[in-house]
Write a structure and sequence with these properties.
The chain has a five-stranded parallel beta sheet, with helices on both faces. The radius of gyration is 21 Å and the shape is elongated. The chain starts with a helix and ends with a helix. Helix 5 runs parallel beside helix 12 and helix 9 (183-194) packs across helix 10. It contains twelve helices and seven strands. It is of the alpha/beta class and 273 residues long.
């Protein structure tokens, strides 16, 4: 699908197309269509409006987002302590070499409180977990992220991450990959950079809702490069909120963002992005 966007010269429109396909836009359009039908077919018009309202409600519920996550994406479980211990021992014994690959999640061109560019909250969460994994296992860390299709001009995301890692986490990154604009390019450019680094395991760090598509991209890229790496998923952000059951079915900003993220990933999977 990326090739189709490239051939049509509309690759920069991917964020716009994504926004049009995700809630609330289709549901708002359904509401308008139902209101229009009220003049000719009152019953059908009311039905469409009711469906649109219900869709808007459930598209902002945490419980709906978590159900969609499990049903549509089935993310792998978090990295087990036993697996972490195995990676640590192999690094110490010199019997294997792993690399922690953190996938970018966006950056702010200028953060007013810091006066410089910063990572988005999602990207900062991934960086934090990747650095923690590096400390726990002794494996070096890479950050992959450039300027996304909807990003403002400025420093690539990987450069911003490298500065934060060194200053705030006191853990410099081993590699930065500053060209990737999407998940496919994360995998393509990261595997190309690591091809001659003596690595035999890639530990992929990203949010759980993004992991399924990211794993496919990295496996495809490794196969394309003829590499026989073991691709190890290290998903994060899978903790469920502990709250009263009724609150999980009430609209919230967290629920809305989760539903959009899951649907965006599923659409990306279907389109081969």
């Amino acid at each position: 699908m990326n090739e189709i966007f490239l051939s049509l010269g509309i690759e920069s429109w991917k964020p716009v197309l994504s926004a049009l396909l995700l809630p609330p836009v289709p549901l708002l359009l359904l509401t308008l269509f139902g209101a229009r039908l009220m003049f000719w077919r009152r019953g059908l018009g009311w039905l469409l409006i009711l469906l649109a309202v219900l869709g808007l409600w459930f598209s902002a519920c945490t419980a709906a987002g978590e159900w969609l996550l499990k049903s549509l994406l089935s993310p792998p479980p978090t990295l087990a302590a036993e697996r972490l211990d195995a990676i640590r021992k192999s690094m110490i014994a010199g019997k294997g070499s792993a690399a922690i690959v953190v996938l970018g999640g966006g950056r702010e061109a200028r953060s007013p409180e810091y006066g410089v560019a910063s990572l988005s909250p999602l990207a900062l969460e991934r960086l934090r977990y990747g650095i923690w994994l590096g400390r726990e296992t002794g494996a070096p860390v890479m950050y992959s992220g450039g300027l996304g299709h909807a990003s403002e001009p400025g420093a690539p995301e990987a450069e911003v991450a490298a500065g934060i890692a060194a200053r705030e986490f006191v853990r410099p990154l081993r590699w930065t990959e500053p060209r990737a604009r999407d998940t496919r390019e994360n995998a393509q450019f990261s595997t190309a950079l690591l091809a001659d680094q003596g690595v035999d395991q890639l530990v992929i760090v990203t949010h759980g809702w993004h992991m399924t598509r990211a794993l496919r991209a990295f496996k495809d890229a490794a196969q394309h490069n003829g590499a026989k790496w073991e691709i190890v998923p290290a998903p994060m952000g899978l903790a469920q909120r502990v709250e009263r059951p009724v609150l999980r079915w009430l609209p919230s900003s967290e629920g809305f963002l989760l539903v959009r993220a899951v649907l965006r990933e599923k659409i990306g999977w279907w389109l081969g992005a």
